[in-house]
Amino acid sequence: MNNKSNSISFRSKYFWVFSLIAFLLVSIFVAAYMVQRSRETRKSAAAGTASITISPQSSNLGYGQNNTYTVKVNSSNTSEKILFIRLDLTFDKNLVNLVSLEPLGSFIIPERSNGNKLVSSVEEANTSGAFYIVLTMPQDKLSQAPSGSFDAARFTLKSVKNESGSTKVNFNTNNMQVVSNNQNENDRELNIQVQSADITLLSTGSTASPSGSARPSVSPSASPTATPLPSVDPRADIDQNGVINLLDYIILLENFGRKVQ
User: Do residues 21 and 131 both lie within one domain?
Assistant: First the structure.
């Protein structure tokens, strides 16, 4: 009887010991979590905010045509200089393709140890439907680091599908970072707010006219320039898509006066 009582007492002691250890471990974990959350809250409140947008915010893009976009950064703390930026953007590779990507201002693209730059190649971007670029200030130009509102990078997209519709260029904030020269090391990384860009795709023969109404025909006698030609000059098909339309005229206006290389 005594042996049975001793066995129960022994088990009871171990039960309370294990319960106490478990309680202490849980308490330590909860305390550590609360401290970390408190630090993150203080950092979020103290660190500045970088608003990142794409200009133009909305645009029209004809089939086979290029549009150039600028990534703009607006830091809430104008006294801080921005020293490091990592941008990550996504797009529908079936509708548009990346043509070029470059830094602006005094920013440069750093290199890996193997000499490759920290930026997506055009081929990589158009295969994955995403591209990134890392921007830093060179050591000898830290005094020229921008603050407040500035242009960070520029990229060009091309429409690759002949259909009307719409698409977006979005930011992937999980892979983005903006770092300033804040004296407090914990507040150097800024919070990020972004706004995507909308692109209206125009198929061959469609126009970006707000009214959508057809142009009235012009009588040949109304103006000498409106006299119909006996045949269509194939040189007027500037984008060589088989159709002479408003897009050819726009290309002509944008390149009028330039020398042909």
Answer: no
